[in-house]
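REQUEST FORM: STRUCTURE PREDICTION
Request ID: SP-0412
Submitted by: Lab K.M.
Chain count: 1
Length (residues): 332
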Amino acid sequence: MRVSIVIDNYNSEAFVAQAIESALAQTHADLEVLVVDDGSTDRSAEVIRRYRDRVRVVEKPNGGQGSAYNRGFADSSGELVIFLDGDDWLYPQAAQAVAEAWWPGVSKVQFELDMVDRHGRSMKRQLPRHMQGTPMARQLMRRFGTYGSPPGSGNAFHRSFLERVLPMDEEPWRIGADTLTILPAPAHGEVVSIQRPLGAYRIHHRDESRLFFNNAPPHLRSEAVRLDQAKHFMTEALDGLGIEHDRPLLLAPWEVRVMAMCTRFDSLGPDPAHGGLGMRRWMLRSIWAWPLTGLAQKLALTVWVLAVLGLPARAALPVARLHRAMTGRPTH
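STATUS: Completed
RESULT:
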């Protein structure tokens, strides 16, 4: 079967050549490589043009990641499609492995990614820490609207599934567009997991303590906004399919941490769409409903949330920095 690797790039001049080279180095015979440059303002386009004789190049005005996904999918022809971020890369056997793992009825094949720093050096960790396929992914989707999945570059989607969710509304998904392909996949077919790394995911900032200075910089706030958008999207998607689900959708442990930090350091209030639940009650209910953590982890996260939300700011700050000691985040 044909595998399309769609590289979405924006201002990744220093990294996009490695992404392209990794796609061209695949061992799978029936392969298509497209590079969508989303109006980069650095020299990305110049780097990409060097590969015009070996890949299909699409240069478009900046519209955000959702726009790049829409265009790349529309221009692709593969039965399986991998959306590869311009700063990540795939290992040579990735396309062949996902093609061999697919069978009729599968909407998504997912695989682990090695975490690397900005310079491509191994961080000795993989994403996701926990990866769920069906039936667990479906169970979690109905209660939480999410499940353990790699970030965008660690997924291969069947074309029949993508035709149901794309094109997406581009403006709300200028960033985080992989949410709309990853989260609903269990509702449309089987999710198959390959339990080994088939690519590398680049982490640009290792010092996460920066999240907690200067009244919560925009990237923390944007994480909370994207999370809320994802809950609304999944609520509408599940309703549209007639699938019963929790109202409101609960928070996974990594989402609890984001909302707690943003609530405490950016005064984010509860959303009426969450069924009138107070933010604190919503978080605590979510912690204890998540089925994949033990009692000790639930207690630790509960104490952390209550401390972050209840202590004075000076005392809450060092507690908040312990967030990575809680349960691991499976998505990017």
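NOTES: The chain has two domains: 3-202, 208-325.
Reviewed by: T.R.
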